[in-house]
Every structure is written in structure tokens, then in C-alpha cells.
Design goal:
7 strands; about 280 residues; 11 helices; alpha/beta; seven-stranded mixed beta sheet
Length: about 280
Amino acid sequence: MERIGIIGSGRAGSALGAALASAGHPVTGVTARSQASLDRAARLLPDAPILSPAEVTARADVVLVAVPDSAIGEVAGSLPLTAEQYVVHLSGAHGLSVLRPTAATPVALHPPMTFTGDRPDLSGITFTATAPDHARPLVERLVKALGADVQWVAEDRRAQYHAGLVHGANHLTTLLAQAFAVLRDAGVSDSAATLRPLLTATLDNTLRSGHDALTGPIARGDVDTVAAHLAVLRGRTASTYAELARATVDLAAADGRLERSTAERFYEVLAAEVLEQDRAGEAPR
């Protein structure tokens, strides 16, 4: 079993370290500076000593650099790594270049999930990795020990991969926050409870069927309903609705669910909304 050292005991590093320790990979050291990091390390990695970065590196076969994206290169470059070691960062957006030049074999290994600070269950997660060919057996061994899977993304596709995650997950939170506000304004007392069954079904169907799962007024060709929505929405929510509606029309028209004439009517209504927002000075910038 490889010895794991962790530089940075934030949520991701501590969680992954705890999962690897549970799978039999000894965590031989961790760095922690803030009180929150010390508390997290004590809770999730009670058997791992708190050490300096140099000491963590000296004791490990695999060094996890679990620091903010902007600090990865500087931190990795300061470590006394050797050619026999692996240095691994957990960023989705970065590939291997941020780890160079270092003596160790570089690996980008991203778990696409949110860590809460508790001990995680990583089984069923699909990690995304970028690594030299000779490092792939190590990556696969570590991931399989967690009960997880791994898929490979080329170095020049890392930003594109991460953009897909952010657009699908982080922007979903923004979208729902806007939807909650609209429902509250309409007099709905519990927006989350009202949306939950619809959201759960939609998410499950979309994960299985892609955009074939689309329902609602655009899929039905109901231009008047979309126009009525735009008439009551305001500000950023109105512009977000219009932009997403336009993209939805594109999908529905491309796969033949909307006739061309109906799609054009939607585009006219949506263009009028953009013009109205421009006049009001509330168009997205």
C-alpha cells in the first residue's frame, strides 16, 4: 500500500485522505495551519501526525497537494519531491502543467462531488484523471480501493471538463435560488418542498435520457405561456429565463420536436424580452 501525505487539510484533502486511510493506505502526515484545519484533521485523520510540508513529503510515496487552485503550482514547487514519488492535485480545472517542473510524477485527480467536512463515502464516484501512462496503474489502484471509478481526460481538455461540471452543478444552485425567489413572490410558503418532486424526477430522467427528458411549455410549443412568464419576471431572473429558454428552443428544434415556425415564434418573444431588458438597463453583462 502506498503511503499518503497530504499538503493542506481542507475539506477535499481531509476527506480523500480519510477515505484512502479507510481503504488501507496509511496517511503518514498532514499539514494544517488554521484551527479549522487542525480540528478537521483531528476528526477525519486522527492517526496522521501534523507535520511541516517537507516532513509530510519525506514520509510519503504519494503527496496530495490539496490547496486552492491558485496556490497549487507554488506549493508543489516548494516541496522536496523525488523522482520515485507521485504528486497529485485535486483541481478539476488544472491538468499536469501546473505541477511542472517537479521531480515527481505529476497527476491531476478530481473527485466531482461536494465535500461537507464529514467522512465521505466515495463508492460509486467517477474520478477524472490526467496522468502520464506509467502513472495510470497507480491512479486506478487508488481509485478502485475507494470503490470508485476513473475516467481519463486529456491535458488540453481539463478546462472544458471543469466548465461542464460548473455549468451543470454550480449554476444549478443559481437557477434554483432564482426559482425559489419567484415562488416566494407568488405566495408559495415552502419553495423547496414544492419543487423537490419535480426536480428529483427531472434530474433522474435527464441523467438517464439527456435532453429527451425535456417537458414543459417549450417542448409542447406553448409560446403564449412562455410570453406570460416573461411578462411577470423581472431583472436578472427574466434575462436568465430568456437565455435558457432560447437554448431550450434550440434543443427542441434541433431534434424535431418543434416545427420551424413555432421555434421562430419563440425566438421573436425571447428577442423582445432581451430588447426590453436592454432598455431597462438590466441586461446581463
